[in-house]
Every structure is written in C-alpha cells, then in structure tokens.
Here is the input.
Amino acid sequence: MAVPDYDAFLKELYACKLCVDERRRFAVPTPDGKPRRGWNKFRTSSAANAPYKFPPIGFGQRPLLFIAINPRFTDNVRIHDEVMSSLQSFTAFSQNRVFGGQYIRPESRAANEPRERFYDDQLRIASATFPNQPFEDVACSAEMYFCATADADGLFCHNSPCAKQYLRQLIDAYVKPQVIVTFGNQIPQFFKKNISGVGASVIHLPFRSSWSVTNIETMDSAVEWATRAVDALFTGAHVPPRNWTWPSSHVPQPVEKY
Here is the structure.
C-alpha cells in the first residue's frame, strides 16, 4: 500500500474548486444574477483563487475523527483570511495552529487567542477519553463540505460532492480512526450510501445551531451520552443506551458499523 502523501492532500484541497467547476448552485450565482436562497454561498480567496475553506484540523493518523457540516463565516473573517493566505498557513491550521496559537482549545487558555465555541462539543468528547492531551494529538475535525459559508442552507449532506471527493480517502488513508463521531441529521444517509466497509465505529449526533430542529436540551443530552459512549468504545466497556431522541425519521443505531 502506498504511503499517504499528507502534503499532496492539503495542496489539492487548498486549491479545490470542484463545486464551482461543476456549477453546483450553492457555489455559483443564479443565472439571472439575482440573489436567491441556497445559491452562491462561497466567497473566493484572492490569495488562493479558490473558495475559502478549512482543512481537516488535527490532520494525521488519529484515534478519533469528528465530521460536521462545514466551516462558517461568523466574526472570524480574520481567521479565514489567515488560513487561506498561503498553503503554508493552510497547512499550519491543519495542525490546529493559527496566529501562533492553538485554535481548538479549552476556554481556560489565553483569552486573546482566537477561539470558537462551535468546537466545544468535539473538545468535550475528546477530552473525556484522552484527558490532558491537546485536541490535535488525539482527534481530527473534518467536514462534509470543506468550503466555508455563512450558513448551511443548500448544502445537502446526504449527497455531498465534497465528501464524495475527499471523505473516504481521509478516513481510510490519512486519519484511520477507531471511532468517528458525526454532527448532522443527513450524514447517516451519506454513510449508508458511500462509506461501507470502514473499520471504525460510528456515532451519529444532530447538529448544534440556532436554526437546527434539535433543541438545546436534546443536543446537550446527545453530547453527554456520546462522551460516555466514545469512552466505552475505547475502553471496551458497555456502550450506554441512548437517552435522547433522534430528531428525524432516519434513525441510526447508537453505534453503526458500515
């Protein structure tokens, strides 16, 4: 088996314009040029001549892989600009480094370092099983769409072209996780169609956001359960029963093997 070329993967991803070239509606303007819901959601980095995106964070062989929907533009434009300013900065961010500091990190660290609460659920799960270890040493955080948008409107995870291009090789060749935790109601459907034969145990969770159909209490319960379930998978203990309700009709098993 060929040795995986991590630098080549990041170089290809940094310059990727697959969805733009394929004229996916979420990646291009409407034919009449008028704003329309679900269209033209990407922003182009002038440095890369490609859409703004995040690499997998904690990129490398890791026991734990998280998969969410996609990176978001919030008040973090400075971070997006830095990450896409060069392939070198993109590569540094894949190791959880930006502006000389750690990106996914506990809240107790220096207040002036950039930090986003979105990753707190992932950090909580990873820290419970691997206490006192940096996130990037034990986990990789990836996406169904690596390109950034203001929201997920129009980004359908059950049929993501980005995930079809990158996710399977990320799992099999680069991260080789023992456990995968996903965040998104449509992701189980994608896994059933496209991710058969992976060796990892997979736990599916809803997505935490202000627009999600999953309320805060359910999401908190789901993450608390997943924290215990992931730890059980690594220690060989019994996985606790799921004590929360999946928010859609496509209900995955508490732990899936594809």
